């Protein structure tokens, strides 16, 4: 996936009960419907155990939430790119704040994902680590500015320089990488703000997975992305 | 699974190309055939991405190679028991030497596996850590005595006290846990030796996965287990 | 150190500013004074950087807060037993809840500490992991029952079975190991309760380090230990 | 420390017996002698337990081999910048290949080292991770090109593009950072080659620590650095 796809929306299913197994499949189908209705590209990042199931039943890309840098071989209990690929994954998150890796492992994972044709989405926790990730040349970077996490501050209400500074620092190092906003998105206004400030897509999770009516919130986000296209 | 099943044979598929995806399915069917022919209980421990596929197509138990102690929720990229269970797993390896956990995590994983009905197989690297694992009360302990790993020493040729000492120390702490021999098994003689010295089953990997004729070696191992029943 | 010393009090200096560098030295001297006044054995567990300084200036034993299982050699940035010993340490905490280790590493650390003559104090987070630690045969086990951490519940007010159950499970496995109570101690009554319920000493931290008058609280704890001797 | 110091030589003492405790002090004095004789700036990176001892007795800067990103407080067994500073350290290695950190931790360590006035030397395993480190703006980057590690290939005999490519990629991102060559240095010719190819100093270990006559090899390296000034 790349810039030509227009704005992208990745939904991280994490290990929520509402997005595991059969429920993961239902939610993926909802995302697929919204993609058909809006043309906005949807991606689901599910647990390793659900990749095969989902990729067999939906057409939108299924991503892993994590990969390990290990090669094929005597590496019990590791998530390697070849297995992800064969089970149907088209990409993977790397270094999510809940599953961090060493710098060396991040670089290996990006390279190995690329080797087998998986799209790499590296997560960065601030503008500085974002620029470091940019130097590693992944396909996408999802930035979670600390000012937007946990504090309940939404992108649309945050000081705009938090996002623009991050985008600027990443662009100084890498002109091609797709930049996603990975925090502070809880309503459609936040989506519009993120894109206006330079992001080219969003990485969301609980705002969709935990929603009473996921289809409505996904549609709202998609429409906001559509307006920014 | 427990002592009533008689001798058990778990095959760890690791991340070998010969035991990933479709090839994992083929090898699982081979194990199933041997179970039907011999009555020896076979278990496959596959990658997380293959659990759903295998559990849909074979009747022998499919185990995970690793679980994390995280609960359901905001834990991106973790392997949790509920997801393993729903994807079809009936048990899991825990603390394999290639995927080690903290003591606290091992205890939580055993407890959480038990809560959802997954069989727990904890790996221990020597007699002392084996006895510590016994205190944690898992369903099974797979011991890999260091004298039998890497050095190329087979159980059948090793000093018998290496295995008997391990069995004795575990039994001092826990009378019920099923003890598997997890190293030094490369031919049928090693299987017989392991059981004669007190093990109640085997955990094998490359000797089966990398075999030119896996069915033959699995059959040989199963027959050796049968004789010890 | 062993049972013959009578009740033991270990003060974990953690990385508090009040117990780093020169302030660590002052606090150690306070502990030494109380030992002289009461006869109760005091131990300070300080940061690696302070071991040499403290062991040069106080006579009470100085312990490390952590060791790694690495051997001497090409292991940059690790805390090995030989260096701890040469710098003046007489013992070490192992597997503190804030610095956890794999089961295999815990076993190696205990063994390696013993090889160079360092007293090993393994921390366990509950009764079950405590009994696992007992099987590893360290010199002491410091147990932090979860019911006594963070919840603000003091030993003296907790259900007594929380502590007695832990002591019983450890004793089932190991008759010799010294058992310390490592949580729920904020006043002298808690010390008395812990010992009455079977503990043979205490591992404390903030209640001493963060005290307005550390000498008073240490004296109070020592007197409570003295009464239980 | 910065570019104004001219070529720099850091000796990583690791956890070798030849560079622990009293022997660490002797070797530090040797380095100091060579600094006095040649004017080349010498730095010793010793174990945490030896920082106080060495910094009391030698005038050359003493660096830590590792720091953790934890703040002062309830963090048992961690190596924090304030304690390093107070014990006499003037800088620290960060993310050595034998003690790797997450990307987020590397960024925090650099920032926290800077806050207390410690010089930061981040280690990178190849040209790509080196450029990522450059984006984090440490004081120095020590690069260990994989082609020069373990393979026994010396800088002076390696393809020069291995080093020049690394230097170029780092310079593209950061004009100020001091670049050290951290692998492939076993004799004086390698030092000259490294500097000719763009490095501004060297990070060495076993070639000095394990030498029969450390003073001779240190002098040889210093003279090679002197010629390149």
What order do the helices and strands come in, and which of them pair?
The structure is a homotetramer.
Chain A: E1 8-12, H1 22-38, E2 41-46, H2 51-57, E3 62-64, H3 81-86, E4 91-94, H4 103-116, E5 119-124, H5 127-135, E6 140-143, H6 161-173, E7 178-181, H7 188-196, E8 201-204, H8 206-209, H9 214-228
Parallel strand pairs in A: 1-2, 1-8, 2-3, 3-4, 4-5, 5-6, 6-7
Helix pairs in contact in A: 1-9, 5-6, 7-9
The secondary-structure element order of chain A is: EHEHEHEHEHEHEHEHH
- CATH architecture annotation name of chain A: Alpha-Beta Barrel
Q: What oligomeric state do the depicted chains represent?
A: homotetramer
Main β sheet profile of chain A: 8 strands, parallel
Strand content of chain A: 15-25%
Fold-level CATH name of chain A: TIM Barrel
Task: Give the averaged pLDDT of chain A, no decimals.
Answer: 93
Helix/strand-derived category of chain A reads alpha/beta
Number of strands of chain A: 8
* Count of domain modules of chain A: 1
Outline of chain A, from the CA principal axes?
globular
- Quote the distance from N terminus to C terminus of chain A: 16 Å
CATH homologous superfamily caption of chain A: Aldolase class I
Total DSSP helices of chain A: 9
